[in-house]
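Action item from last week, closing it out:
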Amino acid sequence: MTAPPEVTGSAAEASPEASLQGMSKKAIQGRSLGQIAWMRLKRDKVAMAGAVVITLLILAAIAALLLDRVFDVVHPNEFHQDLIDTQNGTLAPLGSLGGMSSAHPLGVEPVNGRDILARIFAGSWISLLIASLATVLSVLIGTTMGIIAGYFGGWVDTLISRAMDVFLAFPLLVFAMALVGVLPDSVFGLPSETVRIGMLTFIIGFFNWPYIGRIVRGQTLSLREREFVDAARSLGARGPYILFRELLPNLVAPILVYATLLIPTNILFESALSFLGVGINAPTATWGGMLSDASRFYTMPHFMLWPGLAIFVTVLAFNLFGDGLRDALDPRAR
């Protein structure tokens, strides 16, 4: 390459590398797939709003657990009979809007006068804990079974697929009601609350793994024919290495997306069991149990509003964040 006629001297002898010295290193730096997904997720205002709500809910649940069980500051089961109309026999909260005041922003429950806001916060950690642990259990079992069925195929795929069909056809709600309903108050010296949390987590998580198992199996059937898997085989890699070092990293995105969408489903299922009276025993506060108690006071529907609104906001936040995460991790999305 020759310099133009008007360029002479040292400028004509400048190397191509010299023209890059003025460019910043950041300008030519490539972005990883994680950085690209994070940029897409940040641009999705709805998904970020859902993430903020989820974060606030988790912090509120942790704070409620510490204030109730550790510091003994908040008392969700404390009765306030002085706030109940016992003279006229209505047993309704005194005052307007269910006894709302500065001390009880959401009012108090009929009959016993327990603070509704304190019970909603106290019930949040149970719902989030059971839903999260059950989701982790479903993801572990479903991912393992799905990736094994999709990669090996043959009779292994047939056996695992038929097991998925059996679990999907199982009457989970009836089984959960029957099993949790006959649990003793104490097992191996553990309190009833711990036993029921563990049992609900196992039932919800163990019987929901086929959903994510089918998704992982379908993705694995496509990935096992890709070039990087053939290259790993040609280098002598065995099955476990290919499964967990080659295929599993490429399945992280759909697993994360489905996990965020499975958590609200588990919250609804736990609330349904508590509503039917086979969840966590009273007087421990749960959102489903509060709905069940409020249903008896159909003339005062605002007592059902607050726990129902808590479930609605939580499920909506997880669904919005899951949809945004799916769009951010989809390489075909613009």
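Closing note: The radius of gyration is 28 Å.
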